[in-house]
Amino acid sequence: MGVLSRIFFKKDTDRNNSVAISTNDVQSNFNALKVHPDLKNLLWIADGPKKNYIPKDSDQSIEYKGICIKFSSFSSQEPSLISIKLPIKKVNNPQDIQRPSYFPTYAGLTKEQRGVYWNLLENPYSGEFNIGYVFILYYGLERHLLEGDFDSAFRVILKLRDVYDNASFQSYSACALIITCLIRQREDLIVEFYQSLDKKYELNFSDNLYLLCKMGLQSPLTALDIIRMAKTFEFNNQNYIKKYPDLFLKNMIETMQNNLGAEELDISKYMGDYVWRDLPKQSLPIFSNISIRDKSIDIPLISENFNLKKVIYDLLEQTHKKVKTELAQLRKEGVIPTEKRANPTKGIEVLSFDHIQEKELLNQYKKSCSNAMDKHFALIALQDFYYKYRKLDSKYLQICIDYCNEDINLLPQVQSQYVRDEKENINKLSSIYSKKEIAEQISEIGTFNGNIPAFKRLAIIFEKNKEYLKAIVVCNQAITYYEGITMYDAVAEFEERKKKLQSKLTKISK
């Protein structure tokens, strides 16, 4: 345990499983707490000799290619902020400690959880810590992307992405890295980001955002880029791409040379100012840090450019035909290329129902009933679980629908719980801030501005079942809810979805 063992453990004459550190001990030994060298200058400290954080509100507005990116930062609520006055309790068995709550903060951790968090700071790349602790660290790194040590934070996030496969973490971190690199015109780091994508779970981010980066940095699309984004350009015949990726790539390069006179495709050639302004937009979340507001942006859907889509689709279609012809010729010659076997994923996922996981999720749901916020996230987990098995038995889809409706009905309580939790976390910092500062921070508590998956999931389910009236009702619920908490990007999304549903309803009524 190194330095931590010297801090937390005296000569262990007793058999206690844990040792508490008093407030005074923490302050006197804070300099000796061991953190990974990568994190040495990346932690936000509220007090003591290493204090590096002064609460201040800030607003940033950046115009990029017609996209207005706004960030409002309420620094006093920085969730990763460390106070040396908060007690820590070191435990021998971190796995026995209750996981952090959703949207965790350092101040909101128990003293035992803070002990686990300091273990993470010592060894952040082990991949063994609950994702809640990782998010606390990540919140602070996001702030560095905006106003601190950008390069160091960027590279730490890359390393964390390599070992933690949580889907939310992968999505948020990808968006944050790409957008901030784009703003700073750091093509070198965007290249570094994409070179890091050596695991399937690291690809959990928007293809459209990737296209925006390529265009903004005047970097053309490669054959590999086009093949990877085939479905985005509505080319759904993936048979040869999956079975013979090398052969498909070889033929794609040849097709691009024949059609374009180059092995790369220049996006900007198809993107005049008029086309750019008229493209539909996609709302993307950028930051997960709860102290950064206006955390999503609308970016043009470059993949919806008709001319670009047609060129890329034609390249894929022609390549597909060339591969088909070449395979036929190879078979005639008695040479059959080895098929690449796909990793078993979705097919196996739905073959048998996971009763053990169901029991665990239901137990988690029952335990969360006293806290509306915890219950909300437990319901999301149940929705995801049963939706996954919808093709196995129709009853699982109905259970998913029921949990979605329960979650939507719970939302007023979730908002109230969020305010209570925020007040509690702020009050825990009473030893740092004056009563006036505490009161000011409490007065600035806003609403819980998280996206609610139940709205979109219900709308999709009803639309697929051609129950358009029900889907429209869900859209109206979503619009009313998001308007009430000023999430206007989400309002616009559901208004657009509602228009499409009304159009489908009109067609079947004729």
Strand order of the largest sheet: 2-3-8
Poorly predicted runs of 5 or more residues: 1-28, 344-350
The end-to-end span amounts to 73 Å
The gyration radius over C-alpha positions equals 26 Å
Structural class: mainly alpha
Please describe the biggest sheet, giving its number of strands, its sense, and whether it closes into a barrel. Answer: 3 strands, antiparallel
- The best one-word shape is globular
Q: How confident is the prediction overall: mean pLDDT?
A: 82
Q: How much of the sequence is in beta strands?
A: 5-15%
Any idea how many domains? 3
By DSSP, the count of extended strands is: 9
Helix content: 55-70%
Oligomer: single chain
Number of helices: 21
Q: What string gives the helices and strands in order?
A: HEHEEEHHHHHHEHHHEHEEEHHHHHHHHH
Can you walk me through this structure?
About 55% of the residues lie in helices and about 10% in strands. The strands form four sheets. A three-stranded antiparallel sheet has the order 2-3-8, with no helix packed on it. It has three domains: about 1-205, no CATH class; about 220-285 and about 295-345, no CATH class; about 350-510, Serine Threonine Protein Phosphatase 5, Tetratricopeptide repeat, CATH 1.25.40. By secondary structure, it is mostly helical. Mean pLDDT is about 80; it is low at about 1-30 and about 345-350. The termini are far apart. It is built from 21 helices and nine strands.
